[in-house]
Specification:
mainly alpha
C-alpha cells in the first residue's frame, strides 16, 4: 500500500462532491462513514485517508454498521457482475461443492443468530479459512461479533480505499 499522494487520491480530492460520495459508497455503504470522509477532504496522503476511515469506523453506531453490512453479499455468493465482490471472494471460487454447501449452511445459521450477513475481510483467504472463521465466530456474543465486524469492515475499507487512491484515470473508466 502507498502512503503518499497518488493520481487516484488527487482525483478523489478534487472531484465534485456527488462523484466523491459515489466513490465512497463503492467502498462502504454506510452513509455516516462516507459523510465523515467526504467532510474532511482534501487528504494530503493515502495514510491520512486511512486514518480518517479508521476514525469514522470507530464512531459508527450499530445501525450504521448494519447499513454497511447490507452492502456486502454472503461469502460464497459474490454479487453478480460485481468485479470487486468476485475479486474479494476469490478464495471461494475454486472451493469444492461440499465446501460451498457448508458455507451456505453456515451463512444461514450465522444470519439467524446475528441478523446480518457474515462479514470477513476475505481478500487473500481460502475457502477453508473463511469456513473456519465463521465456525469460530458463530458462538460469539452479539456485542463481541459487532466489534469483530467493525474491525473486518475497517480492513475491507482500507483495501478498497487503497484501490481508489491507486487507480489512474484510465483504469477508472
Amino acid at each position: 500500500m502507498t502512503s503518499g499522494t497518488t493520481p487516484g487520491l488527487t482525483r478523489f480530492n478534487t472531484s465534485a462532491e456527488g462523484d466523491a460520495l459515489a466513490a465512497l459508497h463503492e467502498v462502504c455503504t454506510s452513509s455516516a462513514w462516507a459523510s465523515k470522509l467526504l467532510a474532511q477532504r482534501p487528504y494530503a496522503t493515502v495514510e491520512a485517508l486511512f486514518q480518517a476511515s479508521d476514525a469514522a469506523m470507530a464512531e459508527l453506531t450499530a445501525e450504521d454498521l448494519a447499513e454497511a453490512m447490507a452492502g456486502h453479499p454472503p461469502i460464497g455468493r459474490p454479487k453478480e457482475g460485481d468485479p470487486t465482490s468476485s475479486r474479494e471472494q476469490s478464495g471461494m471460487a475454486g472451493a469444492s461443492a461440499d465446501l460451498k454447501a457448508e458455507m451456505l449452511e453456515l451463512n444461514l445459521a450465522y444470519q439467524d443468530t446475528f441478523g446480518h450477513v457474515f462479514l470477513i475481510c476475505a481478500t487473500g483467504k481460502t475457502g477453508e479459512q473463511m469456513r473456519d472463521a465463521i465456525r469460530e465466530r458463530i458462538g460469539n456474543s452479539p456485542e463481541r461479533e459487532r466489534e469483530i465486524v467493525r474491525t473486518e469492515l475497517g480492513k475491507i475499507n482500507r483495501i478498497r480505499l487503497n484501490r481508489l487512491a491507486e487507480t489512474t484515470e484510465e483504469e477508472n473508466r
